[in-house]
Amino acid sequence: MKNVFATRNGIIFVGLFIGVLAALLQYWGNPGNMGICVACFERDMSGALGLHRAGVVQYMRPEIIGFVVGSMIAAFAAKDFRPRAGSAPIVRFVLGAFAMIGALVFLGCPWRAILRLAGGDLNALIGLAGLICGIGIGTFFFRQGYDLGRSYKTHTSVGLIMPLIMLGFLALLFLYPQVEGEAKSGVLFYSLKGPGAMHAPLLISLAVGLAVGALAQRSRFCTMGAFRDLILFKQVHLLIGVVALLAAAFAANLVLGQFNAGFEGQPVAHTQAIWNFAGMLLAGLCFALAGGCPGRQLFMAGEGDGDAAIFVFGMIVGAGFAHNFGLASSPKGVGPHGIAAVVIGLAVCLFIGFTMRKKA
């Protein structure tokens, strides 16, 4: 049976679907220009688990749970669940950690960069330029024979580990719901103010996550892949989905009164252009070397890819490091050690890129 979501019209539909729902999630309660942000939401989950104690960004985001579980359901339904693992797991973990650090210096993943632009935040243009440059450096390594090695078919239980963990997180949400005025409920931490305290209703967020996860799994939607394919192969299939997301979110923001053009005063953003660029340069290079943007990594983890799951865990742990060690930015600007972390991250990525090339 033909996979209609993998067609040109299918990828456009998926982009439009994500763009509209992202704007609606913001309207329903998610932070400004953050209807969906994989990096920010994984950071909030890291805080909810107590891996960092930044009180303004702690919430077990149902959207992330839905992405993984929705992808798993779609993969099983289409007989596309393929458990696999074994492709340089420690490298993927490190890339995930530095990808998160870069994203938190910019304050957003590629999805949020697009949604920030759709909401009028012109700082996102600088971040997107950095993202594309980072992916461009990654394509240089691809042409030089960069390879993380092959993954191997493995037990179904290996592919189910990440979805089961996410279902466990969902169970914690229901077992320990937030108590009004309390920063902790059972084992989970909750923000009382800031972005972590802003969220759409749980069941709506979960439903959106499940739907996006299922559609993205079938369409192979990936922002990093869109720019990589354009640079490497001059293919625009994935890119038209990204453009559709931007257009749909822009139109929805106009209708909902959520559009505010400018550089200053944007929600959960700063105006330090150099580090907006450099943060996403690092993130883009990490995504390229790992083979997918953070959303795509979640969708692959849902369809049984244990290596993608390792990258996701790297991002969650990286968020803990970013906030515990003063690496993450805030609306006031880059954290006290964020600049050093970006420089170190770029050096690590270049080391990985140059040393993991196939020899002639």
What features would you describe in this structure?
With about 350 residues, this protein is mostly helical. It has one domain. About 65% of the residues lie in helices and about 0% in strands. The protein contains 14 helices and 4 strands. Strands 1-2 form a two-stranded antiparallel ribbon. Strands 3-4 form a two-stranded antiparallel sheet. Helix 4 (about 90-105) packs antiparallel against helix 14 (about 340-355) and helix 6 runs parallel beside helix 11 (about 275-290). The mean pLDDT is about 95.
Q: Counting H and I runs of at least 4 residues, what is the number of helices?
A: 14
Task: Name the structural class.
Answer: mainly alpha
User: Whole-number radius of gyration?
Assistant: 19 Å
Strand order of the largest sheet: 1-2
Overall spatial form: globular
- Beta-strand content bin: under 5%
Give the low-pLDDT segments.
none
Residues in helices, as a percent range = 55-70%
Counting DSSP E segments of at least 2 residues, the number of strands comes to 4
Indicate how many domains the architecture comprises: 1
- Kindly report how far apart the N and C termini lie: 41 Å
| Main sheet properties | 2 strands, antiparallel
Overall mean pLDDT score? 97
Q: What is the succession of H and E elements? A: HHHEHHHEHEEHHHHHHH
